[in-house]
Amino acid sequence: MWPANRGNVIVIPNEHIADLESADDDLLGELFGAARQVALAMRTAYGCEGTSTRQHNGMAAGQEVDHLHVHVFPRYVNDGLYERNREHRFAPAEERADYADRLRRALTR
Questions:
Q1: Whole-angstrom Cα distance, residue 98 to residue 71?
Q2: 9 close to 104: Cβ distance less than 8 angstroms
Q3: Per-residue pLDDT averaged across 52-72, rounded?
Q4: What band does 1 get if pLDDT is binned at 50, 70 and 90?
Q5: What is the pLDDT averaged over residues 65-86?
Q6: DSSP states of 22-61 as a string?
Q7: Which residues of 49-77 are buried (b: 16+ CB within 10 A; e: fewer)?
């Protein structure tokens, strides 16, 4: 969890694909289509002023998990997301629950 961007989401395909370079165009269309839906729902659920996506390929680029995924972040003016990367931590499920519930409701509207 990033301190000023709580409620970020990771969009992951069910099929195992290692990274962007290994994916076909159809899968990428579905993956980024889902990321778009999440980003739109974040605007409703969190009242954020914008959204950002992040996707890494290979260890040198910061990919920590050998499975294609896209991060979607709620964004706010001057939130310093990219400057605060070292403050990232893994939050327990109970801390994430409210954000998940709010986003789930926005996605089903």
A1: 19
A2: no
A3: 93
A4: low
A5: 88
A6: GS-HHHHHHHHHHHHHHHHHHHHHH--SEEEEE---SGGG
A7: eebbeebbeeeeeebeeeebbbbbbbbee
User: What pairing do the DSSP bridges indicate for beta strands 70-75 and 50-54?
Assistant: antiparallel
Strand order in the sheet with 9-11: 9-11, 70-75, 50-54
User: Residue 84: helix, strand or coil by DSSP?
Assistant: helix
Out of 5-19, 23-37, 63-77, 94-108, pick the least confident. 94-108
Q: How many CB atoms lie within 10 A of CB 38?
A: 22
Nearest to 8 by CA among 105, 108, 102: 102
Beta bridge partners of 72: 9, 53
pLDDT in tens, 91-108: 778 888 888 888 888 888
State how far the Cα of 2 lies from the Cα of 95, in Å rounded to an integer: 12
- Are 67 and 23 spatial neighbours (Cβ–Cβ below 8 Å)? no
Rg (CA), the chain: 14
Cβ atoms 56, 62 nearer than 8 A: yes
